[in-house]
Amino acid sequence: MNGLEKIGRIKGIQELILTDGSRVINTRGTKNVDRKARALLCCSGNAGQISRSGYQYLFFERENRAHLFVFPVGTYTLGIIQEKGADSMVLAQQVAAVLKECDFNMN
After folding, report:
1. Could you report the per-residue pLDDT of 43-60, keeping only the tens digit for each?
2. What CATH number belongs to 3-101?
3. Residue 43: phi, psi to the nearest 5?
C-alpha cells in the first residue's frame, strides 16, 4: 500500500486532494476539484513565502467544523478536509506520521 492509500484510510478524513502545482494528481471524495486545487496551491504558496524554512502543515479552522489541512509533500501539496467531529490534532499527527515514513516520489 502506498502512502496516499494509507492516508486515505485514516479515520476522520472526508476529502483529500494531491496536486503538483500544475495538475491534480489524486483525489478522494472531493467535489469542485479545480476550485479546491487552486485554493490549496494559493495557501501552500503563501505559506512558503511566509516561512521560507518550510512548514509541517497549515490548519484552517472552518465554521462548519470540516477543517482544512494543507501538508507540503516534497514538490506536491496535499489538502485534507476532516470529517465533522474528528479530532484535528490526532488527524494531523496520523497524517504527519504516514508522510514521514513514506516516499512520495511520484516520478
Report:
1. 777 776 666 666 788 888
2. 3.30.450.30
3. -60, -45
